[in-house]
Amino acid sequence: MTAVTQAPERTDVPELRVEHVTLRFGGLCALDDVSFTVRPGSLHALIGPNGAGKSSCFNVISGVYRASEGSVRLGDDEITHLKPHKLAGRGVGRAFQNTALSPGSTVLDNVMLGRYALTSGGFIAAGLRMPWTTRAERRHTLRAAEICDFLGIGGVLHTPVGALPYGEAKRVDIARALAVEPTLLLLDEPAAGMNAMETAELAATIREIREELGISILLVEHDMGLVMGIADRVTVLDFGQCIADGPPAQVQADPNVVRAYLGTGSEDEADGSENAAEENA
Ligand SMILES: Nc1ncnc2c1ncn2[C@@H]1O[C@H](COP(=O)(O)OP(=O)(O)OP(=O)(O)O)[C@@H](O)[C@H]1O
């Protein structure tokens, strides 16, 4: 993985504040008065067992769902009801659980889609290939290629995404999210569907993104082992409520968290919890 040109020491990274967010689907309360803060430049994990409300929370923050109550603030900006496409302009990059990539298009073309949020020339000028749009396009293409290099997919720039193994396709999705030059990167269960080796490589990549770019990362994740190894701070949801918030070791030792994970009866989750506890011992 090669270094990407961006200063690690940044003063332009705002705090994300989720404040008293409630989300209802008819009679079902998917999020119940949830509050937490992602500190600037931190790697913050949002975890919880099946159905805890993680994806609902991700979707509220990323503008897909409209909170019934409460607010989401990025620095001084209230972004609670901003449409997803407006968020890129506020410095929010998002990679989804089910990659929303165009499988027939190349890696570079998919990542370039992220750059279009930053272009100002307009479609007509671009269509007429005015000199300034050609220059801008060259600059955006170089930057997209640089981001791909950083994520270890620089060797497959011209390969259709549909021909890539799952782990690499996931990196394309993250590259596209980074292409908007975010100060906040939202990752929804990036390790879902990955094998153990891919998950370990992804964990190293996520840590490197935070260290090299100095941006905040909110990682919504089911895999507790992955989270405990890399997060600065962890918020735990269960049945739509925030049951713990703190450094990984503290959260892991919290009896409510252990109960929430073990109480679901899922062997995977129980193993994840115990393994993570061992790792931190
Ligand atoms: N669009 C929706 N309409 C109705 N109910 C929903 C919708 N999305 C989520 N829910 C419900 O909200 C609750 C929280 O679901 P959510 O998907 O946010 O949990 P999760 O923690 O992400 O779970 P998982 O780890 O299984 O993905 C669940 O009871 C779910 O059935």
UniProtKB/TrEMBL annotation:
Gene Ontology molecular function, alphabetical: ATP binding; ATP hydrolysis activity
One Pfam family hit: BCA_ABC_TP_C
Gene3D superfamilies linked: P-loop containing nucleotide triphosphate hydrolases
UniProt-listed InterPro entries: AAA+_ATPase, ABC_AA/LPS_Transport, ABC_transporter-like_ATP-bd, BCA_ABC_TP_C, P-loop_NTPase
Gene Ontology CC: plasma membrane
Domain of life where this protein originates: Bacteria
Transmembrane segments: none
Domain ABC transporter intervals: 16-264
UniProt keyword terms in alphabetical order: ATP-binding, Nucleotide-binding, Transport
PANTHER family reported for this sequence: ABC TRANSPORTER ATP-BINDING PROTEIN, CONSERVED COMPONENT OF ABC TRANSPORTER FOR NATURAL AMINO ACIDS-RELATED
Protein name: Branched-chain amino acid transport system ATP-binding protein
